[in-house]
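Hey, sorry to bother you again with one of my protein questions. I've been staring at a protein lately and its backbone has me curious. I owe you a coffee for this, so here goes:
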Amino acid sequence: MPTLEAPEERLKKFKYRGKDVSMRRKERIAANLQLRKAKKDEQALKRRNISQFSNDLVSQVSVKEERNPPLKLIIEAGLIPKLVEFLKVAPLPNLQFEAAWALTNIASGTSEQTRAVVKGGAIQPLIELLSSPHLTVCEQAVWALGNIAGMGKAFTPPFTFCLLCTPSQITFLRNITWTLSNLCRNKNPYPCEQAVMQMLPALSQLLQHHDNEILSDTCWALSYLTEGHNERIHHVVAMGVLPRLVELMTSSELIILTPSLRTVGNVVTGTEQQTQMAIDAGMLKVLGQLLRHPKSSIQKEAAWAMSNAEFRVQKEAVWTVANFATGASQSQLTEADKLHEKEKLCLLMEEAGGIEKIESLQLHQNCHISQTALNIIEKHFG
């Protein structure tokens, strides 16, 4: 799970979020909030032709200057259904934006306050706003849905449209990725298979992005999806994301390294085939490097992943030693013997029942095989 604390303002606006956020994200959020404030003030001036009732209602909820808006009073006054109605007023995108902003603020409160937004019927209208021709409206709807998803409310918004976003819409993509991560994090209930299959293509494409925040949230989303049953792991690895995840494990950015390592570690808890796919993607080489990482938390994660693949790691190690011993010169074998690792190999062979196998070969009809078996017993196990 993420480990770094998020700024207070992020925690207020993005519920249950921010445990692994870099200083770059803190700066981005602070700047983003300032831009939103300026945009909101400008749009407030343009809303003078909207009914006075609409102006008054929305302004009560979405005034950003208040650190602790009276959310409880707003809910008790029964204003949420009216805000939900405003989401449907397509001819007035400014009003839709303000209503979505107000619901975002309410959904950033307690679980009960978020639940009130859900009970007020906000989810479907917010999902429909994702197809709005106005980017600011879409982005605010994503933000609101992200707060709702943080509560654990399962829904399946059509986020595959994010693949059509241009690089200039980076903030929008970040919000979408964060919301996807929240949706994948749900445990009760776990996202249904249909929802997972809808989200995976988007996550697979987002994994190819170069923005650190998008990569971080995407990797966390995949780590949540690979927790638990082998079938969940299968859905993820079937997308062909393992090579990219292993590549991201070499990142110098901790916010990318940590979740990518966690995801691969989850994969190797699965079937032999799934573990082999991780090994084929180059996992072992990178894990070996991460065991020497300066941060102990990364060393621990790498050791955990390595232990999950222990049997296959031992098998690969034995093959490596066997290949070396077969083709090495006498001087190389002498140097290898000085490493004092022979005892460990002998112990592994004994634990695996190898001595009995070798002893039985002493009775083999082929004289060369029987003599070799005798030599091994006398030299290494005598």
Observations:
- The domain at 1-153 is CATH 1.25.10.10 (Leucine-rich Repeat Variant).
